[in-house]
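Deliverable D5.2: sample structural annotation.
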Amino acid sequence: MKCARCGAELKQGCLYCSVCGYESQILPDYNMLEDEYLRSLLKEENKPKQTEKKAITKTVGTKERKRAKETKQTKETNGSRMFYVCMGVLGVLAVLGVAAGIGVKSYMDAQNANSYEYQMKMAREEEASGNYDNALNFYNRALTLRQDDKEARLSLADIYWKKKNYDAALVLYMEIIKMDRANRTAYEKLISIYEEKKDYDSILALADEVQEPAILELFQPYLVTPPIISPLGGDYDEALVITLFSLKGEEIYYTLDGTVPDEENGIFYRNEEIAFQETGNYQIRAACINDKGISSEIVEAEYYVEIKPPGYPLVTPDGGEIWEETYVTITAEENCSIYYTWDGNDPTEASEKYTEPLLVPVGNHVLSVLVVNDENGLKSGIYRSNFIYLP
């Protein structure tokens, strides 16, 4: 097709000439020199009479012009039809192209929506960009595609942890631990959440389920060792002094009335002696408390103490008649003092205290001896012995 103004070739589908800018009009490829060609053909034939020649020429010229006109109209019609057909084809192709593009996109979207790898890739990119909400959506989608996947679950829990949505994070970390008892990261995050909430009971409960030594190390700052009570509980026939020890140097609280030995109800132990000096039943309960306020398990001991008075002293010689100078020795139980008299009166703690062997006085005398326990003040029975010394 050519431009109606300048005759330049028009590109198919163009509405304006690219040379002169004139509006496109469809022209046939008809060459105006066709008349010259026809005249040249007539000259080659036998020359008829002049009148016939003119008639023939006139007739031929008329026919050819008619033919040219019909050809031109036909070409114009065919050209117009071709233009509109081409435009229609282009339109159809454009529609098909758009439809094909939409179809391909829909197919790819469907493929990606069901691809675990794609969801994880997009989730990581969104998380790296700080778009946590978008990352959550992708991780959740990945988790629906692989419900037993630890990686997606851990990444999802970490985002909830960063957003301080601790309840959601706790659920996911607990699920991970059930799937993998040696997952150190999940335990660390759980401890940090419970620490944030000051929920130490949950930390200790979590530690009770741990068997891996490497994981148990994470709980050491929260595990408080119970105190040691000495001596052990039992029956005793003497006064007792109770001592308490903490292996980690932590504070110790104790009670003697059966209540809980905590900071509110307990007695703070200051390395003093806890003495049971009378006959009776005793109970002591104690616990260590660390700097986080976490208490150890409570330990307790029960005692039955029967305090017995000192036995009678041993006196040598044991009285009788003597005819020469004699010394009397007296011995008693450990931690006891000895008091005596020679006049038959009962000795007391105000009487003479025995410190060295006694010289038997001349005459008839009764030696009376009392033993007193220095720790509990209990007293023995009074020992009596008659000495008759006649030199």
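Annotation notes: The chain is about 40% helix and 20% strand. Residues 34-110 form one domain.
The annotation will be released with the project's public dataset once the embargo ends.
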